């Protein structure tokens, strides 16, 4: 470990090999930091933080502070951050409550400046949250989610894999996988076909996903009827099963289409 002058590191914190911790950073007792991680100046890492390998944490970040939840009673909970994550300036990540016991950031994620991740959020792998994204408590993001700047996500909302949320949006209902969402109020704005192709989805798979969402969003059917038609008419595929399972589990409801 390379420790700069004027750091405050609790002697019982578990610091991996080749970790760099710059000046004016404070690391509390119940903290674990993986090998090769860089912690910039003026960072505060509270009890319960579990930071993976080869991460970068920029100045002003506050990781694993207690939840902004009046029901919190100093329970022992954690914040888990996967390997190869980049936490930019002034990001705040709160640790969990008794609901899930942890807040989770997956691997290979980028959280840009002033992002806030509240208690009990679960963020998948390879996600990008642009500047000033705010996630309320208990939000779930799938893998490869991209959220543009100044987006607010309401508590208990779920956003599916490979989705793209346009800047300035307010997300109050669940966003199904593989789509783009935009406008005010937030609505379906097409399938995220560019992102899917970049990640290796075949043209056939993208076309089938587009066909499924036509039933849901552009044919004037309500969601229940659209699901019945998809079950009967759409060819079998992993993507079909994922979409239908997401809708089935969405007790909060999914975002509307432009025709609604």
Oligomer: single chain
* Largest sheet features: 11 strands, mixed
Q: In CATH terms, what is the architecture of the largest domain?
A: 3 Solenoid
Number of strands: 28
If strands are numbered along the chain, what order do they take across the biggest sheet? 1-4-7-10-13-16-19-22-25-27-28
The top-level CATH class of the largest domain is Mainly Beta
Which whole number gives the mean pLDDT?
96
Summarize, please.
The protein is α/β, with parallel strands linked by helices and about 260 residues long. Helix content is about 15%, strand content about 25%.
Care to describe what's here?
With 260 residues, this protein is of the alpha/beta class. It has two domains: 2-156, UDP N-Acetylglucosamine Acyltransferase, domain 1, CATH 2.160.10.10; 196-249, Udp N-acetylglucosamine O-acyltransferase, Domain 2. It has helices at 193-198, 203-217, 223-233, 238-249, and strands spanning 2-3, 8-9, 14-15, 20-21, 26-27, 32-33, 38-39, 44-45, 49-51, 56-57, 62-65, 78-81, 86-87, 92-94, 102-105, 110-111, 116-117, 122-123, 128-129, 134-135, 140-141, 146-147, 152-153, 158-159, 164-165, 170-171, 179-182, 187-191. The strands form three sheets. Strands 1-4-7-10-13-16-19-22-25-27-28 form an eleven-stranded mixed β-sheet. A nine-stranded parallel β-sheet has the order 2-5-8-11-14-17-20-23-26, with no helix packed on it. Helix 2 (203-217) packs antiparallel against helix 3 (223-233). It is elongated.
């Amino acid at each position: 470990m390379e420790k700069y002058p004027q750091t405050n590191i609790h002697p019982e914190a578990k610091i991996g090999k080749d970790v760099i911790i710059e000046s004016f950073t404070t690391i509390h007792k119940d903290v674990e930091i993986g090998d090769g991680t860089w912690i910039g100046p003026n960072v505060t890492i509270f009890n319960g933080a579990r930071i993976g390998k080869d991460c970068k944490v920029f100045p002003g970040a506050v990781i694993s502070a207690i939840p902004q939840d009046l029901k919190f009673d100093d329970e022992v909970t954690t914040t888990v951050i996967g390997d190869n994550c980049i936490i930019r300036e002034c990001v705040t990540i709160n640790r969990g409550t008794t609901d899930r016991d942890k807040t989770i950031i997956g691997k290979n994620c980028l959280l840009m400046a002033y992002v806030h991740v509240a208690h009990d959020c679960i963020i998948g792998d390879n996600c990008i949250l642009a500047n000033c994204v705010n996630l309320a408590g208990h939000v779930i993001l799938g893998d490869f989610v991209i959220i543009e700047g100044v987006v607010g996500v309401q508590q208990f909302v779920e956003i599916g894999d490979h989705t793209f949320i346009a800047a300035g949006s307010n997300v109050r209902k669940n966003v199904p996988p593989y789509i783009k969402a935009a406008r005010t109020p937030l609505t379906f704005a097409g399938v995220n076909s560019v992102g899917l192709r970049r990640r290796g989805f075949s043209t056939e798979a993208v076309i089938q996903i587009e066909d499924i969402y036509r039933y849901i969003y552009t044919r004037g059917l309500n969601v229940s009827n659209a699901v019945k038609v998809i079950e009967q008419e759409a060819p079998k595929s992993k993507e079909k099963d994922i979409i239908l399972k997401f809708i089935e589990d969405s007790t909060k409801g999914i975002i509307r289409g432009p025709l609604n």
